[in-house]
Amino acid sequence: MSESISRLSAKRIFFSLLIIVLIPVGAYYLDRLTLIHDISLMCTMNIGISLLIMYDWNLFGIHYNRSKANLFDTLLFTLIGCAGITALVWAAGRWIQPVMVLPDVKIMRAYGYARPGMWVAFSFMQAVLVNMGFKILTDPLKIKTRELQTILLTGLLFPLLYTALFTPFDIVLLARTYLYNFVLVTLLSYMYNQSHSIMPGILAMTIVYLGAMITAFIA
């Protein structure tokens, strides 16, 4: 029989997910002041995920310590993740055409004062959001003898929330974005289940997304 290894209370799961939900909501209202959605989302992403890390510091610390205790697995799965996410981002641009939560190149070039904040928000903070988000959402699942089912279920569940929060309401666009997020989160969930830490996923997604932004900026 499988056993639950959940460490988060229902209250903590609720408030953690609420923080995530409030990020695009806050950006929507901040748009009225900035009139630039990428900058609004940058602000709410940086503030919201900082709050999420502080609120769930024990969870973040557990995974950091696991990663630090097994540096070989951390490096190995970070490299695997970089390769997989890079291939996915390439496929997204060529075929899938999803909505990716990345700033517009013109905005990055026009607002230099906000560029470092955008690079942090849409790489590291977004990586923390996705990796902590799927871990928090699926924390109550029983996983000890059902790793494959958990990986697939994680890939199905969290992308529903993430796609709904950050994608305009268009059926085709929603489907494309959900497919992209499904593959991304399934890969990250696999990395977590193999390394027993979300840190390789955070590092890999940060590196690839930061690289994508810098490449687009200098192109």
In words, what does this structure look like?
- By secondary structure, this protein is mainly α.
- Helix content is 81%, strand content 0%.
- It contains nine helices and no strands.
- The termini are far apart.
- The N terminus is likely disordered.
Short description:
The protein has about 220 residues and is mainly α. It is built from nine helices and no strands. It has helices spanning about 10-35, 35-55, 55-70, 70-95, 105-110, 115-135, 145-165, 170-195, 200-219.
Which structural class matches the secondary elements? mainly alpha
User: What is the residue-averaged pLDDT?
Assistant: 93
Question: Helical region count?
Answer: 9
Q: What is the rounded distance between the termini? A: 54 Å
Looking at this protein, list some descriptive labels.
81% helix; 219 residues
SSE topology:
Layout: H1 10-34, H2 37-55, H3 57-69, H4 71-96, H5 105-110, H6 115-137, H7 147-166, H8 171-195, H9 199-218
Helix pairs in contact: 1-2, 1-6, 2-3, 2-6, 4-8, 4-9, 6-7, 6-9, 7-8
